[in-house]
């Protein structure tokens, strides 16, 4: 299901439920001219990187085709794409999560159709979501 993986990648890029991770420094860290003192708490914002135009063209546009020639979906830890974190704390459930989402999407699109019940729009602050939770009218396909 290669295109389903593109849709999942793009959903996790634009609207991941986890927007970043906290870390506490165990020593002074010097990075790009800044010093983060030992003991500080740092928030590494995946969201800021995933929605950065320097890393993703038209970053705020949902475009699953951007992943078509890109194999990040299986490695899950490209330089700028880390929906499941990275390093020693990489999410151990990432493959299970992908399988579950793939099964859900497969049944949704093959067995159901839907139309928007109300007009809604995407907002990006403080997190990516639809303003009215995107109410839909769902119908089972015959
Ligand atoms: C879309 C679904 C999921 C997303 C976006 C996600 C994301 C993440 C992220 C970003 C981390 C790293 C946290 C950190 O570095 O502090 C993490 C850790 C973790 N995830 Fe997931 N996860 C998902 C699904 C799952 C599932 C299905 C399971 C298990 C069945 C799972 C189990 C865990 C566990 C146990 C950790 C902690 C790993 C550690 O601290 O060593 N996750 N997840």
Explain what you see.
With 142 residues, this protein is α+β, with helices and mostly antiparallel strands. It has a single domain (2-140), classed as Cytochrome p450 (Orthogonal Bundle). The chain is built from four helices and eight strands. The protein has helices spanning 2-15, 46-50, 72-75, 94-111; strands at residues 20-24, 29-31, 34-36, 41-45, 112-116, 122-123, 129-130, 136-140. The strands form four sheets. Strands 1-4 form a two-stranded antiparallel sheet. Strands 2-3 form a two-stranded antiparallel ribbon. The radius of gyration is 18 Å and the shape is elongated. 11% of the residues are buried. Residues 73-77 have low confidence and may be disordered. Protoporphyrin IX containing FE (HEM) binds next to helix 4. Keywords: Heme, Iron, Membrane, Metal-binding, Monooxygenase, Oxidoreductase, Transmembrane, Transmembrane helix. Its cofactor is heme. This is Cytochrome P450.
List the keywords.
monooxygenase; Cytochrome p450; 21% strand; 142 residues; two-stranded antiparallel ribbon; binds protoporphyrin IX containing FE; two-stranded antiparallel sheet; alpha+beta
Walk me through the topology.
Layout: H1 2-15, E1 20-24, E2 29-31, E3 34-36, E4 41-45, H2 46-50, H3 72-75, H4 94-111, E5 112-116, E6 122-123, E7 129-130, E8 136-140
Antiparallel strand pairs: 1-4, 2-3, 5-8, 6-7
Bound molecules: protoporphyrin IX containing FE.
């Amino acid at each position: 299901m290669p295109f389903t993986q593109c849709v999942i990648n793009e959903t996790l890029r634009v609207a991941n439920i986890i927007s970043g991770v906290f870390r506490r420094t165990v020593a002074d860290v010097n990075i790009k001219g800044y010093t983060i003192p030992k003991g500080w708490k740092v928030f590494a914002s995946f969201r800021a990187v995933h929605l950065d135009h320097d890393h993703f063209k038209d970053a705020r546009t949902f475009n699953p085709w951007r992943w078509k020639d890109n194999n990040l979906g299986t490695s899950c830890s490209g330089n700028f794409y880390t929906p499941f974190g990275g390093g020693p704390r990489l999410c151990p459930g990432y493959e299970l999560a992908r399988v579950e989402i793939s099964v859900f999407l497969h049944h949704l699109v093959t067995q159901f159709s839907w139309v928007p019940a109300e007009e809604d729009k995407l907002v990006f602050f403080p997190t990516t979501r639809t303003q009215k939770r995107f109410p839909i009218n769902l119908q089972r396909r015959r």
